[in-house]
């Protein structure tokens, strides 16, 4: 039988991941607080 505490923790982590993704995309999509998503030419990914 699965542990209900473990299931709740997994669901909470999943919900937090979704909220974090929204928090990264929403300022860029709406133009609110552009300093959070400002792209720099010298910044390199990875």
Write up this protein.
With 46 residues, the protein is mainly alpha-helical. It has one domain (4-36). Helix content is 59%, strand content 0%. The protein is rod-shaped, with a radius of gyration of 17 Å. The termini are far apart. The mean pLDDT is 80.
What would a concise description of this structure say?
With 46 residues, the protein is an all-alpha fold. It has one helix at residues 4-30.
Mean pLDDT comes to 80
Report the uncertain regions.
Answer: none
Number-wise, the strands total 0
Largest β-sheet summary:
none
* Rg of Cα set: 17 Å
What fraction strand? Answer: under 5%
- How many domains, as an integer? 1
What is the share of helical residues?
Answer: 55-70%
The H/E string reads H
Characterize the overall form: rod-shaped
């Amino acid at each position: 039988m699965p542990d209900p505490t473990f299931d709740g923790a997994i669901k909470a982590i999943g919900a937090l991941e979704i909220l974090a993704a929204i928090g990264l995309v929403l300022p860029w999509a709406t133009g609110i607080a552009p300093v959070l998503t400002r792209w720099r030419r010298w910044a390199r990914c990875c």
